[in-house]
Amino acid sequence: QLQASGGGLVQPGGSLRLSCTASGFTFSASFMSWVRQAPGKGPERVSTISRSGSITSYADSVRGRFTISRDNAKNTLDLQMNNLKPEDTAVYYCAKDPWPVRDNWGQGTLVTVSS
Sign (positive/negative) of CA torsion 56, 58, 63, 65? Predict the structure, then answer.
């Protein structure tokens, strides 16, 4: 299971930190991703992190503003989001590899960026 938390309402330019707790599988053996889905749009992979955390990748839309990290000892995945923009508004999900498989997503958390 994957359970995301930390979403909320934030003004443009603000920051939020999302967290995800994993259970029921070998967390340290899986690449992990954050995926978001805005209202009326398809899912977008935001960021991915390797098993050890040494390799990360980001969508162009968030590179330089978001940072993904993981703690394999605690089975947690985080996403630090800075300089948030209205277009970042979406439900954010943590997902185990392969991320396009919907069953690999956890319960999402809503992020709303608005003044």
Answer: negative
Q: What is the mean pLDDT of residues 3-8?
A: 96
The verdict on whether omega for the bond into residue 86 sits within 30 degrees of 0, i.e. cis, is no
Residues 6+ away with beta carbon under 8 Å from 101 = none
Element containing residue 10 per DSSP (H, E): strand 8-10
Alpha-carbon distance of 103 to 90, in angstroms, equals: 19
Q: How far apart are CA 95 and CA 70, in angstroms?
A: 13
Nearest residue to 10 via CA among 94, 88, 106, 91:
88
Q: Which residues, in sequence order, are CB contacts of 60 under 8 Å at separation 6+?
A: none
Encode pLDDT of 63-108 as tens digits.
Answer: 999 999 999 999 999 999 999 999 999 999 999 999 999 999 999 9
Query: What are the CA-CA distances from residue 86 to residues 31, 71, 89 (Å)?
Result: 28, 29, 6
